[in-house]
Amino acid sequence: MDPHILTVLHILLAVVLGGIVGFERERHGHYAGIRTHILVCMSSAFVVSVFLSYGFAPDSVARIAGAILTGIGFLGAGTILSQGTEVKGLTTAASVWGVAGLGLVIGIGAFLEAIVIALVMVLILEMRFFSLVQKRI
User: Fold this and answer.
1) What's the number of domains the chain is made of?
2) Which domain holds residue 89?
3) Which end of the chain is more exposed for a tag (fewer CB within 10 A), N or C?
4) pLDDT tens digit string along 10-19?
5) For the whole model, what pTM was predicted?
């Protein structure tokens, strides 16, 4: 397949799946919402797709993937707020980091795996049960 078309497919899937995860965060009023999640997922997918499509060595793709995950960790840290003994935003930070990984998976062309990952992420984010159990312990 033409590398340009493949890269566009990667970008579109990243927009859809990152948007689904981001919609869940935005719906619940969290700081990093749909736009942030789309941008992180899309950018990760785009960079990896371009590196692979244009013949960069696999070890350079692995290095850029590591740099993306490290950099997004700092972005996610900005969503964590501490108010006294209460910490907010930790799950949102994890979801931002997760969609970066999701974008990497999309970028290498693992579309089925990416769809499964996105659905599981949303399922986990929607599970308020764990929050209720944690508060009672």
Assistant:
1) 1
2) 3-136
3) C
4) 999 999 999 9
5) 0.87
